[in-house]
Write a structure and sequence with these properties.
By secondary structure, the chain is mostly helical. Helices cover 68% and strands 0% of the residues. It folds into two domains: 81 residues, Helix Hairpins (Orthogonal Bundle); 47 residues. α2 packs antiparallel against α3 and α3 packs across α4. This is J domain-containing protein.
Length: 136
């Protein structure tokens, strides 16, 4: 069941329709108003309605949900909460790419300190001499 079906609205529903459907269902399924023998069932439904409202009322999360829904992944959408949103994942991936390019550049510069015969460059020799003299 999709969040749209849960709230009883169409996929093109507006924010006011989402909000109205949420209010009605939240009042209906709130654990405080549930019959004593169905408290657990009402609580579970209330949590589902709450999650549906949180996702569909946020334009970015709704766009992600709609994308996943079109791929048939709406049942696993709750797992996205671990990562907050895809921008964080992209930012982490970008950080890793920057780090790898910096590491590659560092290795390239270090290899430039050696000439083709394995001799060190003048600057590398000076650093080496300075380090040796400071340890003595």
């Amino acid at each position: 069941m999709s969040f749209y079906e849960l709230l009883g609205i169409s996929e093109s529903g507006t924010f006011s329709e989402i909000k109205q459907a949420y209010k009605q269902l939240a009042l209906k399924y709130h654990p405080d108003v549930s019959p004593p023998d169905r408290t657990e069932d009402y609580t579970r439904r209330f949590i589902q309605v709450q999650e549906a409202y949180e996702i569909l009322s946020d334009p970015r999360m709704r766009a992600l949900y709609d994308k996943d829904l079109s791929l048939g992944l709406h049942l696993a959408f709750s797992a996205r909460k671990r990562y907050q949103n895809d921008e964080v994942l992209e930012e982490r991936g970008e950080w890793k790419n920057r780090w790898q390019s910096q590491l590659t550049e560092l290795k390239r510069r270090r290899s430039m300190n050696m000439d083709s015969r394995g001799n060190m460059s003048w600057a590398a020799r000076m650093r080496s001499q300075r380090n040796q003299s400071s340890t003595e």
